[in-house]
What does this fold into?
Amino acid sequence: MLLGVNIDHVATLRNARGGLEPDVLTAARICKECQVASVTTHLREDRRHIKDADVEAIRMLPRVRLNLEMAMTDEMQEIALKLRPHAVCIVPEKRQELTTEGGLDVAGQLSRAIEFTKPLLEKNIEVSFFIDPDVHQISAVSKTGAPFIELHTGRYSEAFGTLDEEKVFQDLKGAAIFAQNFGLKVNAGHGLNYSNVKRMHEIPNLVELNIGHSIIARSIFVGLEQAIKEMKALCEGNF
Ligand code: PXP
It folds into this structure.
């Protein structure tokens, strides 16, 4: 499995003091040196962590594959069409939430999702929808033309180590296989850490895991390069 590193929380820390440190671009360069598959950033409507200038600077870095997480709004579509990141992951967004709390309801707004996806695909941007492991959502995405889904692993992460873990994990695995049978490629992410990530290997053919908080949290103690390398090894099956 490939690893995409979400560096939003480098910007969270930077913005806490309003200055320039820690530098988001340096974080992106370290990701590149560690040869991760993608550098992921979520440009939120309220710009609470990553700012437009950060995304633009990361996009200019050679040999960095930018995965831009964004809401399904006209503003974000315009930014994506201008910047042309390698990939976009379309996520739900609520102003008050601490993080992306659930998957996007694609089934409930299918015609909007189709119309939103089309110009992005025309610019050769790889489109993914961040959805809950739910068959209705998966079949809706299969109608949009997007080649990827990213399955929300938040419920699995919360259930990890509890009596609910097995059921929640099997639901996730079943959803991934269901999506692959529709011809969709499957990524996953949210709440994954150095322990619960290992079970992702039990899900066949997952392409990429997008992981942020646990890596940035660990980097405080061991450094970003080491934190990324440890997670990359786990993604590659070296436990
Ligand atoms: N994937 C998506 C679509 C997300 O929105 C997030 C959180 O921004 C992540 C992955 C990473 O989640 P975490 O920071 O919990 O690893």
Summary: The first strand starts at residue 2 and ends at 6. The two ends are 13 Å apart (CA to CA).
